[in-house]
Amino acid sequence: MSTVPSLVLGLLLGALAMWAHMALLRGAIAKAVSGPTADNRGHILRTAPLRIAIWVPVLFMVGRMGLAACLGALASMLVMRALLVGWMLPDVA
């Protein structure tokens, strides 16, 4: 695959994976905040394997596509994280 298509696919995969990860984390934090205090940390930790499992196929795919896809995924993950944290922060705080 040439450089530009793999870069674009890496950007898309990284952005989608970060969005899914942050949406699941937002739900876990919201549920933990509204629940009993003894179970807060446990709920966030119980949902961690699902959030981490999202990354395995994404990292495998961009790794197979090459350096351009890896750099695209990394760039989109950083940008999406910054955008989503800024968007979600008022809801959590």
Overview of the molecule:
The protein is elongated, with a radius of gyration of 15 Å. With 93 residues, it is mostly helical. It has 5 helices and no strands.
Question: What are the key terms here?
Answer:
93 residues; 5 helices; mainly alpha
Mean pLDDT: 84
**What distance lies between the first and last C-alpha atoms, to the nearest angstrom?**
44 Å
Number of helices: 5
Structural category is: mainly alpha
- As a whole number of angstroms, the C-alpha radius of gyration is 15 Å
Spans of at least 5 consecutive residues whose pLDDT stays below 50 are none
Largest sheet: none
Based on DSSP secondary structure assignment, what is the total number of beta strands? Answer: 0
Oligomeric state of the chains in view: single chain
What is the H/E order?
HHHHH
Shape: elongated
What percentage of amino acids are in beta strands? under 5%
How helix-rich are the residues, as a percent range?
over 70%
At a glance:
The chain has five helices and no strands. It has 93 residues and is mainly alpha-helical.
Would you spell out the secondary-structure blueprint of this structure?
Elements: H1 3-34, H2 40-46, H3 48-53, H4 55-65, H5 67-92
